[in-house]
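Handout for the seminar on molecular recognition.
Each group receives one record of this type.
Step one: identify the two inputs.
Step two: read the structure output and locate the region that could contact zinc ion.
Step three: write two sentences on what you found, then compare them with the reference statements printed after the record.
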Amino acid sequence: MPIVTTKEMFRRAYEGGYAVGAFNVNNMEIVQGITEAAAETRAPVILQVSRGARAYANHTYLMKLVEAAEAETGLPIALHLDHGDSFEICKSCIDGGFTSVMIDGSSRSLEDNIAVTRQVVEYAHARGVVVEAELGTLAGVEDEVQVSAEDSSYTRPEDVEELVTRTGCDSLAIAIGTSHGAYKFKPGTTPQLRFDILDEVARRLPGFPIVLHGASSVPQEFVQMINDNGGKMPDAIGIPEEMLREAARRAVCKINIDSDLRLAMTGTIRQYLAQHPGDFDPRAYLKPARANIKALVRHKIVDVLGCDGKA
Ligand code: G3H
Ligand code: 13P
Ligand code: ZN
């Protein structure tokens, strides 16, 4: 099966009350860890590439890695641009073989967001590619942009129909209290998500796939592994997995996870190098890092997203 769009994945996820995982990829070991877990659990999967990842690893290398994963597993895999910030980068990814792009106009005015999203949709749909739009601003770091908690804003449900009907986008990312990175809630506070906003959006857009960014749950075992081996991460709090399960049961069809993979990889490598100070073969520490990414993704698929067996 060639690399696919998310159209059919989302239709089935919405009906089935589960979500498909969208995992950020930057190199071969990350692609392998994710897709080996997806293959063993027979889960559809979205591999997504940020602007930073594309600048780091190069478009063609990432494209070929994903093609290799598809050939090895035979799974439905979508290749998605994460947080495209202009028509030009979306066009470049569409021309270069991606099956899905995000145009993130969330920091623009509603009119500007609609205008750029519509331009991307027209180009994408003419080439069989699907488009994710965003309304509302998440806090945290994405690429080189840092949004403070004060500058973040929940999605206004009264805007969603206008954006979706005037652009023809295929899915919509909304802000309900998640944020990018490992520091999502202040220590001592209780994590909360605005499920009322999610439900109101779903009521206004029946059957329409909603996307949740900033959905890492920040496993404390990996934070500990980093800090026990020379790291200095302050208290890091993620989204409780029960809340992600709840979102998946509702209208959320795509759940984005990046920071958890970074924690798994870095924690494992720090621990390995601390325990084997004489080793200098990169394969020695990348192998357990890849294995822990695989175990983490397997856990997300089976225990959180509910998309195992849906490929
Ligand atoms: O939403 C942002 C993702 O975590 C990608 O992060 O731009 O540092 O690759 P990055
Ligand atoms: P996390 O930082 O919570 O993993 O979010 C990733 C994301 O939303 C990528 O677009
Ligand atoms: Zn994001």
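Reference statements: Residues 224 and 267 are 8 Å apart (CA to CA). The chain has a mean pLDDT of 96.
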